[in-house]
Each structure stands twice: as C-alpha cells, then as structure tokens.
C-alpha cells in the first residue's frame, strides 16, 4: 500500500493552485503600478505641475484597493507550505525557507512600512521625501518578487544543495548558487516585466476610457502617454527575455519544453517550432503540425547547434535514473540503520542525484526496492506532464505577449504624435484590459503544471510533499477559501469600478499657467 | 562549515525567533488590541475613524513581524514550522481568515458611506484583532501541554490528534485568554497615547481592565504550570552539536517540570516578574497621565510574558504528548549550520535597518489623531 492518500494530494494541489493564482491577480498590478506611481510623482516633483500629483493620488487610490487584496492573499501563501505541504517544508526548509525569510526581512518590511506613509504622508512630508517613500514602496515590491522567484526557481532547478542522510532532508551548500540560479534570473525579468505590463495596461485602458468619454482629458492623455511608454518597454522585455531561456538548465526543464511543444522525438539541432498541432498523449504523437524551421532551437537554446531531446528519449533517461535511484534509496535506509556503513555512503554519494527518481515509485509501492518492472515503467512515464494543456497555454500566452507589443507601440505612436481621434485604438486599449491577467495566469500554469510530477525537480515528487491531514480538513479550507475569496473579489471589483468612475480630484492650476496651457491645447482640464 | 559552533548558532536562532515573536507581540499586538477595542472605545462613526486611523498607517508594517516569524521558523526551524502549522490546521485557517479581513477592512471601510457597510467592516476589523490574539495564545498553551504527533523513520510528521476541540482544552484556552488580555492592555495604552477626549478616557479604562485581567490570569497559569500541567524534560540524548534528527533522545513528562529551568537559574524569574511589573507600571503611568511611559511599560510586560513562555519551554520548541521522545527541541529541529549562520548574519545586518526606518515612520506620524483632523481630511484617511 502506498503511504500517501491521493485525495489529500489532489485537494492540496487544487487549493494551492487556487490560492496562488488568486494571489497573482493582485501581485502584477502592485508591481507595475508602484513604478508608474513613482514615475508620475517624479514628474510632479521635477516640474511642479499639479496634474502629475493628482495623477499619482488617483492611481494611488486604485493601487491601495489592489494592494490590500495582495497583502491579504499573500499571508495565505506563506502559511500554506506548513499547513498543507508539511513534508515538503521539512524536506527543503533548510534551503527554501531562506529566501522567504529574506523576503520578509529585506523587502516586505520596506514595502509595508512605507506604504502607510505613501497614503498618509502627503501633508506630513516634503515633496522630495514623499517621492523617496514612493520609490521605496516600488523597490520593495519588486525586491519581494525577486526573493519569491528565487525560491520558485530553486524548485525548478535545485542547485546549491545536497541530501543529508543524517537529517533525511536537503541542506544548503551554496546560497550564492541559489540566489544567482540562472532559472531565477530568467524568471525574475520575465515575471516582473509581466507585472509592469499589467500595471501599464491598467492605466492605459482606464485612460482610454476617460478619453472615449471625453472626461478629464488632459489628465487621461498624460496617464496614457506614461502607460504607453512604460508598457512598450515592459512588453518587449517580457517577450525578448522570456522565461524559456532557463528551460535548458535541467532535465525536467527540457521535459517541460518538449511537452510545451508536443515534441515526442528528439530532433536535430536547431529544432523547429510547432505553430499549430493537436497533441495526443495516449498515442504519443502530435498531429496536423504546422512547423517553422529552426525557431524553437533558437528560442530555447539561443544557439543553432544545441540539441533538444524529445519526450520519448527523456522518458527512457528517467527510467534509467529510477533504477539508479533505487540503489541510492537502499543506501539511505542502510545509513539510517547504521551511520557507519561506508559502502552505503559511497553508493549514496555516487547515485544521490537519482534518489528523487526512486521516490516516484512510492506512488505505487511503499518501498521502492520492491518495485516491479511495470511500476518502474509507469513511474518513468509519470515524468511527462499533460502535453495538450501546456501546448495550448503556452501558445495563448505567447500570442498575448505579441499583441501587447503591438498595442503599446500603437498607443505610443498615438500619444507622441498627439493623434487622439482614433476611437478604434482607444477601444482596443479598453478591451485589452483583462488580457495581461490572462497571460500571467497562463504563464504560471505553464511553469508549475509543466513541473509536474515534481515539486522539487528531480528531488521530491509532489505527492510526497503533503501534510498528514485528512481530506475533510482540506475540503473545509478549500470551501472556505472559495467562498471567502469570491466574496472579496466581488467587493474589490465593485470598489475598483466605483473609484475608477469617480475619476481624479484635480487641483485648480494657477491662472497664468492655465491660460498658457489653454491656448496650447484645445481641450481644457475638467474640474 | 561556518566559523561558529552549531550549539551557539542554534541558541542564537532560538533567541532571534524569540526576538521576532516579541517584535510581533509588541508591534502587531498593539494594533490588534486597538482593533479589539474598536466596538467599546468608539461610539460614533467619527470616533471609530479616530480609532482606526490611530493605527491605519502602521498596522501593515507591524504585521510583517508575523510574516517574518513564519519565515524565520521556516528557514531556521523547518521541522517546527512543518509540524506545528499542519497540526494547527483548522485554528490557523481561522487566523488566516481573520488576517485576510484586516487589510481589506482598513482600506475598504471608508470607501462607502453606508452605515451597514461600515458596521460590517468594524466587526471584520475586530475579528482581525481578536481571533489571532486568541488563537496564538491557545497555540502557545498547546506547546505547554504537548501536541499529539510522532515521526516516521523518514521524519514525516504524523499528527494524531483532533483538529479543533482537542486543541481547545482548558489550559490552552486559559493561555488564549491571557494573550487577549495582554493585547487589550497593550492596545489600550497605544490608543490612550494617540487619541483625546472620550476615546482616550475609554482607552484608559481598558488599560486598567486589561492589566487586571492579565496579572490575575497570568498568575493562575503559573500556578497551574507548577501543580497540574505536565512538563517535559530531556533525560538522555539531545546532543546540542548533533544532527537535527528528533528521534535520538529520551524525554520525561511530569507535572512541575516546566519550572526546572527556574530552579536551575533563578535569575530567569526576572521574566515573569517583568510581565507583572510592566502591567502594574502601565496602570500607574496611565493614572499619572503619562501615556507614553504607559506604552513603554506595557511593552515591557509583553516582553516579560512572551519571554516567560520561551524560557519555561527551553530547550523544547514543541513537545509531543503521545511520543515525548519525538518532541522538537532547540538541539534537534534546526536548519543546517550553514543556513543558520548565513541567516544570522543577514538578520543581524538588516533588522537594525528595519528598526531605524520604522522609527522614522513613527516620528513622522507622531501626535494625536483628532476628530477635527478626521473631519477635515476625511477623504484621504481610512
């Protein structure tokens, strides 16, 4: 009998997915909007023109509504490793806990301590000091993302650590390697840029709405221009510095990319990119493929001569690693009984990288040493994530990425050339509002679903990571989160819409400046 | 290998975890106390907004002490984080629900004028202060009585107890009430410092009530610890330099054993004494009309009470009631020496920076929150 209750595994995964995806509805907007507030307020401090201060306060109010939700749903994430993934927490806390603690210490304190002053410090601080506070909030939120992505990247590419049989867990050997993990760098740039795109789209769409309605036109044009410039830079960064650049780092990252491509057989370098196809997991083939030569090899390896292995070859490699892993597992058991067993220690040292592969068997059998060849084969095929969902999510995400580049480029053209009469463009901006969220959620789905069956790639299968809790408890919490989060989302959206429609409170400008501006621009600020 | 002894590193991290938890109790404690007092200290909407805005700009930063506590436990004491969070699954779910209400309660309440809307968020803010104060106290009480768990050979923690009512036995509940009384006293000293007129007067009354309840119940808890509550003691194994494997020691369990540390080191009695003296001094300073000193005294009391719990339990972090030998202690539940060392350096460097910008923020925000200020600057406040 396997040790783990599959219902606990499935429910815990569902709850983590739900709460993480929900949390990430708010995070990207915080990331992007905080920098845009810093930019707008900087212009105010440099030029002294009140409209920029009004912009900062208006977008800041919307930022506040969103920020509250981000904080509220973030606490769940930190608790959840312990409540639902206790064995995971024990097994990798020595490494994984460090970036989380450093996040609190270096980033979250900064962001949360100064966000109060951002809202309440306008009258108590000199403009320059308040501007510094705003920059620190923005810095804190991006730094926070950096630590979380370092932790997440370690799950995808667990370097700088080793298994210790005396404590039966992974332990840190090199924090520098964990922090400068190449996967973390790719993830950081990609994810944070995606957040900036979200913030930019939020401002762009709402400004477009004001322009379509002819309300607060001067205010909306300036916001639109800032969003277009910031958004184009960010959208280019998201696509050009895509997350997949980190995918060649490890075996399972290669599996992830093969699954995303529905690529069953290894191809000669550089591999072709499949623009369209119908992946069939049962038949282990992808039908009706439309392919672009060389493109995938270029995207994934940034080279023309590096080979990308297909799914079938990767499964064969996994099977070999499971067999070696069984020897490593046997060695850990013997070392547990007798720490002085030097032969077992030597075997473990040479085969430790495959230990996690033996753990895949525990889905079928309590002791991997008792596994049958059929179980080993099944466990090797378990290393293939669901191909079709990855294939389609990835394509939808990439398509959205290119759309953002096009849209922000058009918006930048319109704002620099002062072409404000193209209503179709304003409508496109408005209708694109939800798309960055869709892209971000798809991106996380690709990254995390694509990591399955591993929670720590090659080290710990997801199903082993759970707590010793009952399905009834998780049903309780899952129902509570669903109801609670839905209610909060309704309230949040209601407030967001209400305050968007309310519009900014604009400070009357001194008559001289207003007179000059009125002649320069045909449209006058509404009061 | 880091250049510091594993034993010293573990001791340092025990102190640091204590420091972070004290930071949480002192900093987030006062804003949770203010939230608990919201229904009684304020009668009108303006008064409620005075109370809410007294903590409005700072509660978020304060709450990071809790996040840091969770992160520090995860990074420095992974078995403790894993075992306690999964055993206290349902109570932590309640805490989470309450904590989720806080940020949205603060930000959303003032955004709509409707009195029903505001009343709902008032109660949400109250729960956001009350539930965590109670549950964290109950959790500490459960550490004293021991928690039913054991480990498998691969160090997978198996919890065998009930998920809510078993954790709500009389002694843990008493600890929960001690915690609420402490938080109310502490929050009341802050509220008295930051407000005027009627709200300030009610806050002062709450200082007296909270301090009286705290001293009586804290003393009662001490008497129960000395007489009926089982304590734990490591009797064999438990090498301070050994690997973090909680299966290599023997533990005895008997009433009164939680006082063994005080018998060995009577100087440690300073901690409970500070718990009592701080509460009495908070009352004294409030009577004399020195609210700033009352807040300092109350912080001292909080420091004393939390330290008393930590010192009594030492070296235990989380004893097992069903398999005492599997209890988690300072010597067998830590991270590796390297992780402890790096995180120690990081904390020693960064925490003073955090403390200094926190002081800056409080200096900017110094002074009382008045009804007049709320009425003139209403749109930009909570």
Order of helices and strands of chain B: HHHHHHEEHHEEHHHEEHH
Largest sheet of chain B: 2 strands, antiparallel
**Runs of chain A with pLDDT <50, length 5+?**
514-527
The biggest sheet of chain A amounts to: 2 strands, antiparallel
Tally of individual helices of chain B? 13
What percent of residues of chain A adopt helix (DSSP H or I)?
over 70%
Folded structure, characterized:
The complex is a heterodimer of chains A (about 525) and B (about 375). Chain A has about 525 residues and is mainly alpha-helical. Chain A contains 18 helices and six strands. In chain A, the strands form three sheets. A two-stranded antiparallel sheet of chain A has the order 1-2. In chain A, helix 1 (about 5-45) crosses helix 16 (about 435-450) and helix 2 (about 50-85) runs antiparallel to helix 17 (about 470-500). Chain B is mainly alpha-helical. Chains A and B meet through helix 2, helix 3, strand 2 and helix 17 of A and helix 3, helix 4, helix 5, strand 2 and helix 12 of B.
Features:
heterodimer; A: 527 residues; mainly alpha; 18 helices; B: 382 residues; two-stranded antiparallel ribbon; 6 strands
Entry summary:
The complex is a heterodimer of chains A (527) and B (382). Chain A has helices at residues 6-47, 50-84, 86-120, 127-156, 175-179, 182-213, 217-240, 251-261, 295-301, 311-337, 342-351, 355-359, 373-382, 387-416, 423-431, 435-449, 471-502, 511-520; strands at 161-164, 169-172, 273-280, 285-292, 454-456, 460-461.
């Amino acid at each position: 009998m396997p040790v783990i209750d599959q219902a606990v595994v499935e429910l815990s995964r569902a709850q983590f997915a739900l709460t993480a995806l929900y949390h990430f509805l708010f995070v990207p907007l915080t990331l992007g909007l905080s920098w845009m507030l810093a930019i707008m307020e900087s212009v105010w401090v440099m030029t002294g023109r009140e409209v920029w201060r009004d912009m900062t306060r208006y977008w800041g109010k919307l930022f506040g509504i969103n920020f509250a939700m981000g904080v509220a749903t973030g606490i769940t994430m930190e608790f959840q490793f312990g409540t639902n993934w206790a064995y995971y927490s024990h097994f990798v806390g020595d490494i994984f806990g460090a970036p989380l603690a450093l996040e609190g210490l270096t980033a979250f304190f900064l962001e949360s301590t100064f966000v109060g002053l951002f809202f309440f410090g306008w009258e108590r601080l000199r403009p320059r000091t308040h501007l510094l506070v705003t920059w620190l909030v923005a810095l804190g939120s991006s730094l926070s993302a950096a630590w979380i992505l370092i932790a997440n990247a370690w799950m995808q590419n667990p370097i700088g650590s080793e298994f210790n049989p005396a404590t039966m867990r992974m332990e840190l050997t090199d924090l520098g390697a964990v922090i400068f993990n190449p996967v973390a760098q790719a993830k950081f740039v990609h994810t944070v840029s995606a957040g900036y795109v979200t913030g930019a789209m939020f401002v762009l769409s709402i400004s477009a709405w004001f322009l379509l309605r002819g309300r607060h036109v001067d205010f909306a044009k300036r916001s639109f221009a800032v969003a277009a410039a910031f958004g184009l830079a960010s959208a280019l960064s998201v696509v050009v510095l895509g997350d997949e650049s980190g995918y060649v780092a490890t075996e399972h990252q290669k599996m992830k990319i093969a699954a995303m491509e529905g690529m069953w057989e290894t191809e000669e370098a550089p591999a072709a990119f499949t623009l369209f196809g119908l992946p069939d997991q049962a038949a282990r083939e992808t039908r009706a493929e439309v392919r672009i030569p060389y493109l995938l090899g270029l995207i994934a390896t940034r080279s023309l001569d590096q080979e990308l292995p297909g799914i079938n070859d990767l499964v064969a490699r996994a099977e070999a690693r499971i067999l070696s892993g069984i020897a490593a597992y046997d060695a850990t058991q013997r070392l547990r009984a007798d720490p002085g067993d030097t032969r077992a220690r030597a075997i473990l040292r040479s085969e430790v990288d495959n230990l996690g592969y033996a753990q895949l068997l525990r889905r079928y059998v309590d002791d991997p040493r008792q596994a049958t060849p059929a179980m080993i084969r099944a466990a090797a095929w378990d290393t293939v994530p669901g191909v079709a969902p990855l294939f389609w999510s990835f394509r939808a995400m990439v398509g959205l990425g290119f759309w953002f580049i096009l849209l922000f480029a058009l918006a930048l053209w319109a704002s620099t050339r002062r072409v404000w009469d193209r209503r179709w463009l304003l409508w496109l901006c408005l209708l694109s509002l939800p798309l960055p969220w869709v892209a971000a959620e798809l991106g996380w789905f690709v990254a995390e679903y694509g990591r399955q069956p591993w929670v720590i790639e090659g080290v710990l299968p997801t199903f082993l990571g759970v707590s010793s809790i009952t399905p009834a408890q998780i049903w309780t919490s899952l129902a509570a989160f669903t109801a609670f989060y839905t209610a909060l989302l309704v309230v949040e959206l209601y407030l967001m819409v209400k305050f968007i429609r309310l519009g900014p409170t604009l400070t009357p400008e001194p008559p001289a400046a207003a007179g000059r501006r009125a002649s320069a621009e045909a449209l006058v600020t509404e009061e | 290998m880091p250049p510091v002894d594993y034993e010293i590193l573990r001791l340092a991290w025990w102190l640091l975890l204590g420091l972070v938890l004290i930071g949480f109790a002192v900093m987030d404690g006062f804003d949770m106390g203010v939230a608990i007092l919201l229904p009684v200290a304020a009668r009108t909407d303006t008064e409620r907004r005075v109370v809410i805005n007294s903590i409005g700009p700072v509660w978020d930063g304060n709450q990071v002490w809790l996040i840091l506590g969770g992160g520090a436990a995860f990074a420095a004491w992974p078995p403790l984080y894993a075992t306690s969070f999964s055993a206290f699954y349902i109570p932590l779910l309640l805490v989470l629900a309450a904590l989720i209400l806080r940020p949205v309660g603060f930000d959303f309440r003032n955004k709509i004028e409707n009195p029903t809307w505001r009343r709902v968020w008032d109660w949400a803010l109250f729960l956001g202060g009350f539930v965590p104060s109670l549950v964290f106290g109950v959790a500490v009480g459960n550490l004293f009585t021991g928690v039913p768990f054991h480990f498998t050979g691969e160090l997978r923690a198996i919890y065998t107890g009930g998920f809510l009512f078993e954790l709500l036995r009389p002694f843990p509940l008493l600890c929960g009430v001690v915690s609420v009384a402490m938080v109310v006293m502490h929050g009341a000293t802050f509220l008295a410092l930051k407000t005027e007129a009627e709200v300030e007067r009610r806050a002062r009354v709450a200082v007296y009530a909270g301090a009286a309840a705290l001293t009586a119940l804290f003393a009662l808890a001490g008497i129960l610890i000395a007489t009926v509550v089982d304590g734990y003691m490591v009797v064999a194994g438990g090498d301070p330099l050994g690997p973090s494997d909680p299966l290599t020691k023997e533990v005895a369990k008997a009433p009164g054993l939680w006082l063994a540390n005080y018998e060995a080191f009577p100087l440690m009695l300073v901690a409970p004494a500070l718990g009592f003296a701080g509460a009495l001094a908070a009352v004294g300073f409030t009577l004399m009309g020195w609210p700033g000193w009352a807040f300092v005294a109350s912080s001292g009391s909080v420091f004393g009470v939390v330290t008393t719990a930590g010192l009594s339990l030492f070296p235990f972090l989380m004893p097992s009631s069903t398999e005492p030998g599997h209890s988690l202690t300072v010597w067998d539940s830590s991270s590796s020496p390297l992780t402890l060392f790096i995180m120690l350096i990081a904390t020693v460097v960064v925490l003073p920076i955090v403390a200094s910008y926190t002081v800056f923020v409080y200096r900017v925000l110094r002074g009382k929150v008045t009804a007049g200020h709320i009425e003139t600057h209403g749109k930009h406040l909570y």
